[in-house]
Amino acid sequence: MTPSSTDEEPIVEPSPGNDGADDVAGRALRLRIRQQELLAELGVLALQGTSFIDMLGHTARMTAEGLGAEFCKVMEYLPAEDRFLVRAGVGWNDGVVGSATVGADLASPAGYALRTGKPVISNHLENEQRFRTPELLVEHGIRRAMNVILQGDGSPYGVLEVDSRAEGEFSEHDVAFLQGAANILGMAIEQLKYQRELQAALDRHQVLLKEVNHRVKNSLQLVSGMLQLQANAVADPGLSERLNEASTRILAVGRAYDRLAYEADYENIDLAAYLRDVIEDLESVVAPCTINLEAPELIHFAADRAILVALVINELISNAGKYAYPESHGPVWVRLLRTERNKVLVSVRDEGVGLPADFSPTAGKRLGTRLINALATQLDAELTRPPSSKGTHFALLVPIQPPVSP
Question: 3-state DSSP call for residue 110?
Fold first, then answer.
């Protein structure tokens, strides 16, 4: 799938001058940073095995948050009816999601975005002359809206639309964020299609999963490249650092998948060997530290859970590389041990400057800490910070088998 480009100029309704732009510059910068964090989180969700329906909901919720809007909806195009079906959304009245439809002809903003591939911004719907305002928006008192195309595999899936009752204006920067969210959701749509096609053949030939992993990796590299381009283009060092961090996290997910490309048995991989390969990749991108892995025994592990363990290790080692040794080059130890309770203990420690004594690994507010906790929860694992006389030590106790659902 080729993600939709935002290089084309979006159709923007002419609007009066923005005399207060200088006053809100700081707030706008913080919003752009938060938008990139949300894109990174959405990318991780797309690769965590999140169900398609849940992924639609996450996209609507995060998109609305990133644009400070009250409403957002994912609309699927129904060719037989030439209309859109509201598949997911936030802010709408009961009965809208899953039932309401909107016209998809060129006279509607969403239909124009679908058929031309161009983003559409309508900042003053009450004065809109180019398109008719859908009745659904009128009923909810929407004053401004923005639409971008949502690609599927080979043909458009529909559109992603954000709407607001509040005064203000959506900008071309907002279009870039909205299209980024649509591209990540498009990856999930593409992956869903391939999963359906491959399921019948999976028992005969598991090598078909390699193609899915390869496509996922390529899509992640594209998203990461987009973030890198934005990081290089901005003049603000803080924003550039955040964008680079988001790009690095997405590349880490891609590397974790790429290392499984040649595994024949996805349910019984060698966890130690897999993590050794992942850590070897990390040594080339994380500095300044030397990574030592202690893994004395063979541990069979399911591939989807091994990826989550690798992502936790990536976050912990990355933090150690950035903060543990601010003025020197130091070691980081990763230890892998199978316990008597049919669990695996994964520990990451360093001998650096350490963390405050009252720091809690489960209560941190930074994006990295929240990602680690989210991954630990998905693994049904226990994340702790054992006492350490020097440096920082984290431990993750992971069940070898996932808990059985009741």
Answer: helix
In the predicted model, residues of the chain with pLDDT beneath 50 are 1-6, 19
- In 285-363, DSSP assigns E strands to 289-294, 300-301, 330-338, 343-350
Taking the CA atoms of residue 12, residue 15, residue 17 and residue 20 in that order, the dihedral angle to the nearest 10 degrees is -80
What element of type H or E holds 313?
helix 303-323
Q: Is the pTM of this model over 0.70?
A: no
CA atoms of 390 and 330, how far apart (whole Å): 13
Q: How is residue 357 written in tokens?
A: 């004594």
| pLDDT tens column, 140-170 | 999 999 999 998 766 889 999 999 999 889 9
- Token duo for residue 104: 């998809």
Neighbour tally for 54: CB within 10 Å: 12
Side chain identity at 367, as an amino acid letter?
A: L
CA 351, 355, 359, 365 torsion-angle sign: negative
Task: Measure the CA–CA gap between 197 and 243, rounded to whole angstroms.
Answer: 35
Domains and CATH numbers, the chain: 11-202 (3.30.450.40), 266-399 (3.30.565.10)
What pLDDT, on a 0 to 100 scale, did the predictor assign at position 83?
Answer: 95
User: Quick one: pLDDT at residue 2?
Assistant: 44
Alpha helices by DSSP H, 140-207? 172-202
